[in-house]
Structures are given as C-alpha cells and as structure tokens.
Amino acid sequence: MYIIDTHAHLDEIANLDDAVSRARRSGVIAIIGVGVDLKSNKRILEIADKYRGFVYPALGLHPGNLGDEEHREATFQQIELNLERAVAVGEIGLDYFYKETRKEGVTRQVQKQVFNRVLSLAKDSGKPALIHSRGSWQDCLDMALALKVERAVFHWYSGPMAVLDKIVASGYFISASPAAEYSLPHREAINKAPVDRLLLETDSPVAYKGVASEPAHVLRTLKAVVDLKNSTEEQVAIATTSSAKSLFGL
Ligand SMILES: [Zn+2]
To answer: If you measure from the C-alpha of residue 174 to the centroid of ligand 1, how many angstroms do you get, rounded to a whole number?
Structure first.
C-alpha cells in the first residue's frame, strides 16, 4: 500500500533524515514539501535536491509570512524563476483568522493582492495551487475561479459545505490532515467530498493534540479517512495516491 503526504513543511522538521526514513518505512512513496516564504522556499528546493525522487517541491508565499514589500517582490521572482522545478505553487492563500498579520499592516487587501499574483503564476504555469483558506474559503474559491485556475487543492479544508460543493464541482481537491481524527468541520468535509476529490497530508510539523507531526503520520490521516468513508485502507490509498500522482505529475 502506497501513500503520498501532499503537504509537509519539511524545512521546519527537526532530524529530517530520520523523519524521511520513518516515512519511507511507513509506505509513503512521495512527499510534497511546501514553502511559505523566501527562506523556506530556498530550503525546500535544497531538501528536494537531497531527497530527489521522494521529495517534490512546492513554492509559495503564505498569508502569514508576507513580510514587507521587498520580501514579497523577492519571493515572487524566486517562485517564477524556479517554477519549472516545482510541482505546485503553494502554500498560498488568505487567512481571515490572523490578528497578528493585521498588526503588521498586512490587511486583507494586501493578502488578496499577493494571493492573486501567486495564483496567476499557478494559472499560467498550469501547476496546481495549494491553497490555505482559513476563514476565507469563499474568497479563495472566487479568486481561483475568476482567474480560471484549472487545478487547486484546498488544504485541510474545514469550511462551509456550500463552498465545498463548488470546490468539487469546479474539479478542485481538498486535502485531509490528521485533524480528521477529531475536528468536526474537517470530518464533515471529508465525509462529504467524493474520495476521488481527496488527498492525504500531514501539514507537519503541526502538532495534533499536543504532539508534533511528521510525514509518516499521513497513515493516521489515511485511517481517519477510511473510518469516515466506511472504506478500506487499500481503496482510499489507491484513490488518493493516484489523484496525487496525476495532479502533481509524479
Ligand atoms: Zn501548511
């Protein structure tokens, strides 16, 4: 049984060599390493070089990591320059729960300008967009549709069911994280989305119930999805792995 962790912040994981070995031993055949800013994108590219054929890079600019104008400009250029090597544009998106970003003068308006620009890179390159849409589900979907983005993943989706219906109808994906074990809105979304619109992820090293995660924990995600879908591990693994392979061109 083979599975893919489609969203991991590998640059933030301590003892990455060990974590990668444990992932391989758990049946993980690929990891999408996602960047969030200039520094992390650079690290993700280095990590993808080191674990070639196992780690695939996604380059992004996270709404919580926008920084100043100079940083944003440098990151746009970096993503554009390295886009050919990347399998996706992400992590990008909007976050309406953040208070700290507003303090730094990063308004929703700025978030939207940035998101629109990086989303255009996804659209123009034909690479999937990995979207962080916390509290901003409808706006993220509207912006992706307005730009006619063909391929997108709404990562760790926990938003309204009406938006989920449109995500699915637009041919987009949602991804399930280990929070599928206990988060009610996330469970509801996974329950409703067809299995062929679902991907598995960890968002590692995000902590679930106080324990830091790593890519091997995508097995926990798998088990939680199996439980919700009343399916088998084999069936969910086959469906999600084949979707991930074709979406990211692996
Ligand atoms: Zn993330």
So the answer is: 13
- pLDDT value of position 102: 61
Q: For residue 176, how far is its CA from the centre of ligand 1 (angstroms)? A: 12
Residue 28 belongs to domain with CATH number: 3.20.20.140
Task: Return the pLDDT at 98.
Answer: 77
> Is the Cα torsion angle 22, 182, 136, 189 positive or negative in sign?
positive
Ligand 1 center to 94 CA (angstroms): 12
CB atoms within 10 A of CB 96: 16
Query: 187: domain range?
Result: 3-248
Residue 204, classed as helix, strand or coil, is strand
Residue 12 CA, ligand 1 centroid: distance in Å: 11
Residue type, 215: P
H or E stretch at 52: none
CA of 238 to the centre of ligand 1 (A): 24
Give the distance (Å) from ligand 1 centre to CA of residue 6: 10
Specify the number of domains making up the chain.
1
Q: Which residues make beta-bridge pairs with 57?
A: 33
Give yes or no for residue 101 having a pLDDT over 60: no
Give 123-163 pLDDT, tens digit per residue: 999 999 999 999 999 999 999 999 999 999 999 999 999 99
Percent share of the chain, pLDDT over 70: 97
- Is the alpha carbon torsion for 92, 94, 98, 102 positive or negative? positive
How much distance in Å is there from the Cα of 177 to the middle of ligand 1? 10
Average pLDDT of the chain, as a whole number: 96
